[in-house]
Amino acid sequence: MRRVYLDNNATTPVLPAVFEAMQAYFGEHFGNASSIHHHGQETRAAVERARESVAALLGCHASEIVFTSGGTEADNLAILGVVQPGQHVISSTVEHHAVLNSCKHLKGSGYEVTYVPVDGRGQVNPDDIRRALRPNTRLVTIMMANNETGVLQPVEEIGKVAAEADVYFHTDAVQAAGKIAIDVKRIGCDLLSLSGHKMNAPQGVGVLYVRKGTSLSPMLHGGSHERSRRAGTENVPGIVALGKAAELAREALVRGDLETMSRMRDRLEQTILSEVESAGVNGHGAPRVPNTSSIYFDCIEGEALVIALDLKGLAVSTGAACSSGAIEPSHVLTAMGMTPARARGSLRFSLGKQNTDEDVEFALSLIPPTVARLRDLSPIYNKKEAVSS
Amino acid sequence: MSQTRTIAVAMSGGVDSSTVAAMLRAEGYNVVGLTMQLWNQRRLAGHEGIPESVQGRCCSLDDVYDARRVAETIGIPYYVVNHEERFERDVVRPFVEQYLSGRTPIPCSLCNNHLKFDQLLIVAQQIGADALATGHYARVDFDDQLGRWLLKRPSDRSKDQTYFLFGLTQVQLSRTLFPLGGMMKPEVRQLAEHHGLALAQKPDSQEICFVPGGDYKKFLDAYLAEQGETLPDTAGELVTTDGEVVGEHGGIHNFTVGQRKGLGVATGSPLYVIQIKGDARQVVVGNQEDLYSSTLRVYRTNLISVEDLAEPMRVMAKIRHRHEGAPALIEKSGDDEILVRFDQPQRAITPGQAAVFYSEDIVVGGGWIA
User: Fold this and answer.
1) Measured between alpha carbons, how far is B54 from B62 in angstroms, rounded to an integer?
2) Would the CA dihedral through A67, A70, A74, A80 be positive or negative?
3) Domain coordinates in residue numbering, chain A
4) Does the residue B20 lie in any domain?
């Protein structure tokens, strides 16, 4: 069966060049990067080259890059690593669970947390952050791009608000990396999270950018790896892969590959909207990353649509993937003011570097008829039809 | 050109539904495994009387894990669909309210009517399946002469689940398969072994899936506490069948008809709960003979083998899952009400349970005991 994968916000395939770069570090160059001997020196050099590559992607110094096990660890380290007891954190209602649940953990331990709302397009108002500031505010953590809608937050303005108030600013850029240019100086952030597997490196590696001078307590205690900010022997193959993926992401941005992706996304979106009634784009009108489209289909259970499409070879998602495999209405979409029913009837399409025009054609050949069949069998839709006719 | 039929299998993670999936797969159907996530087992964990960690029940992560492993072993696509909201509204809430009004509910029948053979059947159709198969012990056949779908008792009488399925409509039955209807349980386990299923010897589940340890009173307390509600005060009097007050009780939800223990009254002969008067908060007690009665009325009826009950009909009527069934005459006594007259008085007819009518192996229909 032909299978097309349009769920690249969940994870991306490792690009062949990335896989090739990391392979040697499983066997041929296997040393512990902390070892004194030749083997250690080889892998140390590889780790530092990768660090420089990631630093180049973000516009920072290599010493400001901390490798982690992934985006979740980076978010946890950023939040739990800078906040002290009695302090206040400002976040938003549409953050990834890695941020939301880190904040929830803080709240449970007696810290103060404020969640600023978003508007109907999914954006935070920087003035809301300004108003939420307190004398004991230590950290503002607002994502750069939303994983479900792709909506971009006004991080540069938020960075200014944080700088004026002299509080730390962390941004989860996991869904932005490789999709738009990221410059930590322009954003004005002190901390920024990346995840390898969202940008064509493997699962199990991530990055926390920590601006020089930021006071960060480690979460993992052990050796003095990563300048004592993250103990534990480095995941050398993963780090090498991430370095290569960062290099490829930088080249793709320069080449303008993302404009091609944006055109594909727009065609997918516009064709669906023209062929399917009672559907719309979540976050419409807000700036978005070029690969993501979240679309609601009224009177549809999103999970049934995902299953029906999967059985025909198209992989998409209802929103955030849940580890149990079950699906709850998206907190992101409900925070944007959508009803739980409409949130549950939303699908996320996310393109990746490997997708082609033919993939989009394939998706478009399946989506409108499948939606129509689900609606034919939906008691709610038929009731609505009966009322309106 | 004939296309291979696609069949969705409702997989609970138990041996029965797993074997159904394996059988159908081996027969060459396109099989899709579906598990309904109905209740979050962690929700009430930590409330008084509810274990911190609950193992091996319906919808637990362990059962989903088992179902997923089976799907992987036999090579079928498998999905979990979330119907927690609907389950709470149509099964858990009514369960709580029935107990609070002094009745003894059967959540499994409600789940069959509102979830398994309603929501899940819709999902099955939506994803392109021609039918939904489950691991219930029952049979479904189309009778050409009657022009109706019939629900029948299975070969393994000790596993008969037709009592819980009396609410199925003709449309639901027409889209349902019960592949275990002709098999005995030991055969099912053998077949599971044969198909290499690791859970072939997994014990049967017995209790109500969302009530940990089977203690419904603790569940009521924990659920109401979680909802920010308090258990309504339904304490009142224990009275005899003559109306004489013989004691007090702590709340009507603690009682069920036929109960002997926990009445807190010492008398010469054993006392039983005869009736629970919800409005008056009275629990009527009496001796063994008082428990017997010859008639009952059911409402919210469903008829399967007949379109309508135009004439009175002789049936065997079952008044609880473990009841043998007793000869009775049923007749329509109202718009959606059937009067059941037993030939011999029956013990402990319990409001909230179902009465299900059989004509030999065929389920005629049933309703909820008023």
Assistant:
1) 10
2) negative
3) 4-12+256-388
4) yes
| A90 φ/ψ angles, rounded to the nearest 5 degrees | -115, 125
Chain A interface disruption, residue of B126, B130, B132, B172, most A CBs within 10 A: B126
Q: Note whether residue B326 is domain-resident.
A: yes
Residue of A nearest to B31 (CA): A311
Tell me the ipTM for this assembly: 0.84
Fold exhibited by the domain A4-12+256-388: Aspartate Aminotransferase, domain 1 (3.90.1150)
Does residue B106 form part of some domain? yes
**Strand duo B176-177 + B131-133: pairing:** parallel
A304 touching chain B per CB within 8 A: yes
Same domain, B131 and B62: yes
- The domain in which residue B213 lies consists of 6-135+179-217
Q: What is the b/e burial string over B114-123, where b = at least 16 CB atoms within 10 angstroms of the residue's CB?
A: bbbbbbbbbb
Q: pLDDT tens digit string along A31-70? A: 999 999 999 999 999 999 999 999 999 999 999 999 999 9
Residue B36's domain is classified under what CATH number?
A: 3.40.50.620
* Closest CA in chain A for residue B36: A326
The answer to whether B81 contacts A310, with C-beta atoms less than 8 Å apart, is no
* A327 Cβ under 8 Å from any chain B Cβ: yes
The pTM score is 0.89
CB A174 within 8 A of CB A194: yes
Say whether both B268 and B331 belong to one domain. Answer: no
- For residue A26, the one-letter residue type is F
